[in-house]
Amino acid sequence: MYYKSIKPLIIDESDDYIFINKPPFISTLADRNDTVTILSLVKDYNDDYQICHRLDKETSGVLLIAKNAEAYRNASIQFEHRQVDKTYHAIVDGLHQFKDEIVDLPLHTTASGYVKISHRQGKNAKTIFNTIESYKKHSLVACKPETGRMHQIRVHLASLKASITADETYGGNPLFLSAIKRNYHAAKETEEQSIIKRFALHAKSLILTDLHGEKISAEAPYPKDFEVAIKQLRKNS
């Protein structure tokens, strides 16, 4: 889908901040392969506005934009000091009953951009996981990263043998209807497509403190592909 403005993506707005619901398949920052990014849309909207953090291209969900330099600095300090409360939802392969499951494993980004657990080279990374729902062969998991390392949730879930569905980089499997629906057969001569065509990770909510010391928060509804995947998993459980 082609986006011309951040306007339809806005969830909430104050004097200093905008919360948007980032769609999947669009880069947050400048990308040499894409002319349209969240950054380009933000700058078209108002050149003074700044993006406070980033989400992977395939990840959907809540993203914070500062309207002025003071607001940007305020958010940056909170991100740096781990004072921003972030919750992601992930559909993962397998049945898991996580209850405040803590993964505290250091992560190292290799030259190719692949992230691996490394006690020797890695930077500390911590995530807490809780199962929200279980289906037939999958689970919906709430993920709270306390640090903000690249691919952190994806790698930490893979370490629990709970790779994010359709995250082939870190061991996830495509979500085929034939695998969850009884007596379902794809049409002959056609290759079955995964219900969700990206890794199933969504930034659900964000809570921080504004310039007046008040808590501000936003929650991002699931995009259509994530919603459809959940619907099919519930229906075929």
Automatic annotation (TrEMBL):
Coiled-coil stretches: none
Q: Which UniProt keywords apply?
A: Isomerase
InterPro entries with a match to the protein in the record: PsdUridine_synth_cat_dom_sf, PsdUridine_synth_RluA-like_CS, PsdUridine_synth_RsuA/RluA, RluA_PseudoU_synthase
The terms under GO molecular function for this entry are: catalytic activity, acting on RNA; pseudouridine synthase activity; RNA binding
Keyword Transit peptide carried by entry: no
Gene3D superfamilies found in the cross-reference section: Pseudouridine synthase
Q: Which PROSITE patterns match?
A: PSI_RLU (PS01129)
What Enzyme Commission number does this protein have?
5.4.99.-
Domain Pseudouridine synthase RsuA/RluA-like: start-end pairs: 16-159
For the keyword Transmembrane, the answer is: no
Q: Which GO terms are recorded in the biological process aspect for this UniProt protein?
A: pseudouridine synthesis; RNA processing
Q: What is this protein called?
A: RluA family pseudouridine synthase
This chain's source organism reads Marivirga arenosa
